Amino acid sequence: MSTASGTVTPNASTPPILHGVGSAALPSVAPSRSKEPRDGNTSLGTFGVKSGLAQMLKGGVIMDVINAEQARIAEEAGACAVMALERVPADIRADGGVARMSDPAMIKKIVHAVTIPVMAKVRIGHFVEAQILQAVGVDYIDESEVLTPADEQHHINKHAFKVPFVCGCRNLGEALRRISEGAAFIRTKGEAGTGNVVEAVRHERAVMSDIRKASAMNEEELYAFAKDIGAPFHLLKETARLKRLPVVNFAAGGIATPADAALMMQLGCDGVFVGSGIFKSGDPAKRARAIVQAVTHYNNPKILADISCDLGEAMVGLTIDKDIKGGRMASRGW
Amino acid sequence: MSNGHAGRNVVIGILALQGAFAEHQAMLQKISSCKCKIVITLVRTVDDLAKCDALVIPGGESTTIALLARLAGLLEPLRDFLKRKPVWGTCAGAILLAQSVENTKKGGQELLGGMSIAIARNGWGSQVESFEVPLEVEGLREPERPFTGIFIRAPVVLSLDPSPSDPPLQVIARLSPHCLPQAVAQDLSDEDPTDPRDPRTVVALRQGLHLLTTFHPELTKDNRFHDYFVHQCVLPTLD
């Protein structure tokens, strides 16, 4: 596999590019249909195609679904992708216990039910769950704080996979650490399963504010700032130059209404994840479609007013304090 | 060269319902012409579309873009636009421009039509099959330099079926037959998979005013395809 991608990706050419199929440390776990290389000239799983899929999802809504029926409702409502998981975050909070990767059989059913990309979650640091999901053939992996972490010190080395990864962040330093590990797509952590957008707003504002600060800095100041926020210097410098994250940035964690989605878009996100907010509401199909429209027309209050009418009951929201059931998920990972 | 367009603006719209429209915008903003000023605009409503002389339909999810177009009342205005003005579809945009499509969501999905081809969505399978490959493209500036084709869950052209009254189809880039998805190759095993005229190897083509690419020139730093669309498809229609 050649690494031709370094010269063609518009916004993420700096991270070192390794390929799952060629790296020595991990077994090759590519799906069977790609056993034979097509041509000496093609490159599979480059950072360009990983971040490129995230670019195709922009302006869209990625919805949590727990079975094929929900996945079809999401597809009909205009979701640009679905996240397959056994329990939505609100139920993970309520049930307690250890939350793990979903049953691959359930994920395969969802893959067969829809034509849009299917994502699935692995525990932070659980690279074997990631190998399994790559073998299943999911389109994106979310290394997610919503599941119980498998490793409190290390995140997955995501360069070693052909399948791309999305990771959560609370601030710019955390986002750039994840990109440095190979994440091709970043989302805010927010506080999943609460229906309360306050943490997603906090995290997105923190990221955007630090980007604005960095873009006004000279090189010496950037070195010091990189040290302060624990970010790799070259990624911070690239972010300062672009005046945005070098990969796609979605909002996640607590989005429950079209207005929440449009708020996150106006704060500078490229799209949104909606977890419990759809299938824990009174009329999931209608609410899902309204949130899809809100992300497209986020700057048009008249359209937002029209689509926000008569959506039925929103999910019951939670106040986020130290006693919240299921704890603060956003504090998992570093 | 005539100078008849001096002072006139040409407005190129980018359908901005969902997908990689900002990338097309950034690429098109770098294109200049001595003939006229090029103005780039994002299209989300019927009023936005009415201002345009040409349109780019970006990559994204074709099901999402089609639904949002219907909810915004844009489907018929877009079909009408296609009869009169140049349109370029990339990836999801290419699917929307096709006459018929396979691997649709259950119950089928809406298309705009406009080009006489049949296409299959997600021709290569899931994201782990997405790839980059150098392409030889006919008619680009500096033709000796290959163009990097970025194929992301890309569609495959299944057949070229122009009726006698349609404008001719002109293939401008093909993949090597070895790059074809194995699943497709097996489905049609009676055909010679190395046939250089195999429609499934077609990745860029023109018909009449329109341009179609199954890959993503907007994800590269190479603006030759955007330059080609503006100079070969858009500007000649202003005469």
TrEMBL record, chain A:
Task: Tell me where the transmembrane regions lie.
Answer: none
Domain PdxS/SNZ N-terminal residues, every copy: 47-252
Map out region (Disordered) in residue numbers: 1-44
- Part of which pathway? Cofactor biosynthesis; pyridoxal 5'-phosphate biosynthesis
- Residue spans of biased composition, Polar residues class: 1-14
Q: Does the keyword Transmembrane helix apply?
A: no
What name does the UniProt record give this protein? pyridoxal 5'-phosphate synthase (glutamine hydrolyzing)
Give the classification, highest ranks. Eukaryota, Fungi, Dikarya, Basidiomycota, Agaricomycotina
UniProtKB/TrEMBL annotation, chain B:
Q: From the Swiss-Prot or TrEMBL record, give the protein name.
A: glutaminase
Similarity-based family = Belongs to the glutaminase PdxT/SNO family.
Which organism is this entry from? Jaapia argillacea MUCL 33604
Q: Which Gene3D superfamilies match?
A: 3.40.50.880
Which NCBIfam families does this one have? PLP_synth_Pdx2
Keywords noted in UniProt: Glutamine amidotransferase, Hydrolase, Lyase, Signal
Q: Where is the active site?
A: C91, H216, E218
Coiled-coil portions = none
Instruction: Supply the enzyme class, top level.
Output: hydrolase
Under which EC number(s) is this enzyme classified? 3.5.1.2
Q: Name one GO cellular component term.
A: glutaminase complex
* InterPro entries membership: Class_I_gatase-like, PdxT/SNO, PdxT/SNO_CS
Signal sequence span is 1-22
Which one GO biological process term can you cite for this protein? pyridoxal phosphate biosynthetic process
Binding locations of L-glutamine = G60, E61, S62, R121, I152, R153
